[in-house]
Amino acid sequence: IVHADKNNNIKDIEYLIDTTCSVYTEIMGTIKDSSGNNFTGGNVYLYQFTENLTQLILADSAPIDSLGFYGFYNVWGGKYIISAQIDLALCPSCIPTYFGDETYWDNASWLNTLCINNLIANIFVTQIGSMTGNGFCGGNIQFGYGKVAGDPVPGLDIALEQVPGGIKAKTTSDQNGNYSFANVEPGTYRLLVDIPGLPMDSTYQFTVASLDSSNTNLNFTVDTTPGAGGIYVGFPLFSKEVFGSEPDVRIFPNPNDGRFEVSLFNGENQNANSVFKIYNVLGKMVYQMPLPGNQVSFVDISKFSEGFYFWKVFSGNINSGYGKFSLEK
Questions:
Q1: In this predicted structure, what is the pLDDT of residue 246?
Q2: Which stretches of 112-199 are DSSP H helices?
Q3: Which of 62, 281, 321, 326 has CA atoms 20 to 30 A from the CA of 303?
Q4: Short-list 276, 317, 318, 323, CA closest to 295
Q5: Per DSSP, what are the bridge partners of residue 217?
Q6: What confidence category does residue 318 fall into, taking pLDDT thresholds of 50, 70 and 90?
Q7: CB atoms within 10 A of CB 80
Q8: Which range among 51-65, 87-101, 302-316 shows the weakest confidence by mean pLDDT?
């Protein structure tokens, strides 16, 4: 809008923002191999970022048609990533690949659909060769926080990445949460558990020798706590334990810089001898202190490294509660 005086001399210009943009977006594209040939079978998955959640929401899925084309329609404004998974009967060497031609969700290219009518998102699917070594590695994946601790996590994608060298193999955890890689060639490797939105808080890195080399018990815990979840090595520290009467255990603040207050309020067990213990992500106890009932105690572990830690309270011989906090400096 142009503002002028009575002689038509411009005094100022007022700019208005158009807020009537389209509510919905279309996301479409083709799925190809590295040579540009279209794949003609499989599915594409659409994951949405949501505030206050860590794990991304699977918003929709679409088939790859006979021309290699897929499409999502009526997509709400927001942030998304997409993943293409080719039918293994058509391409046994294909592994799930995200838009941006990446094989791990955290490296994928984000799509922002706010006020955009349509987006073209083509994906060139990664293919890997077979391994011919003598090495073996495997383990189990269980839920920690956010689900029933100790329950297996089936259907997860786990990648074996050579350091350096990139992804060499990919597998899926079975109904019992087990996974394994055979015929691993000599080299240094690390493992990536791929759950869109959940970061790898820690992982394993190991070396496979030229002779038979076996690396077992490479276990992971999946924490789906909203806003604070992640994946870390080892089994849940508190899986399927029997708890006594539930106390009110409070940590403040959380996150913290290693200095915080902890309090235990439980009238039934207020005279019990309680102990407050802290564990690192490897499951090793790194701190403990007596915890009197119905009062506030102060903890100072400010010399510890940044990262996630887990706490546990014992009242006598009974596990009275557990939780997690983040140490940030």
A1: 46
A2: none
A3: 321
A4: 276
A5: none
A6: low
A7: 25
A8: 302-316
Radius of gyration of the chain (CA): 26
Distance (Å, whole) CA 229 – CA 55 = 7
CA distances from 237 to 146, 220, 284, 290, 312 (A): 14, 11, 9, 20, 9
Q: Are strands 220-223 and 230-233 parallel, antiparallel or unpaired?
A: antiparallel
* pTM of the shown model: 0.70
The residue count for the chain: 329
- Per-residue model confidence (pLDDT) at position 296: 85
High-pLDDT (> 90) share of the chain, %: 52
User: How would you label 38-51 residue by residue, b for 16+ Cβ within 10 Å and e otherwise?
Assistant: ebebbbbbbbbbee
pLDDT (mean) for 195-211? 89
Q: Residue 261 is encoded by which pair of tokens?
A: 């207050």
* The pair of three-digit structure tokens given for residue 230, joined into one six-digit string: 């992640």
- Give CA–CA dist 233/220, Å, rounded: 4
- For residue 152, cis peptide bond before it (omega within 30 degrees of 0): no
- Percentage, residues of the chain above pLDDT 70: 82
- For residues 228-266, b (16+ Cβ closer than 10 Å) or e, as one string? bbbbbbbbbbbeeeeebeebebebeeeebebebebbbeb
Per 3-state DSSP, the chain is made up of helix, strand and coil in percentages (nearest 5) of 0, 50, 50
Q: How far is CA 63 from the centre of its chain?
A: 25
Please report where in the chains the tokens 């509510």 appear, as a residue: 23
The answer to whether residues 230 and 200 touch, using CB atoms and an 8 Å cutoff, is yes
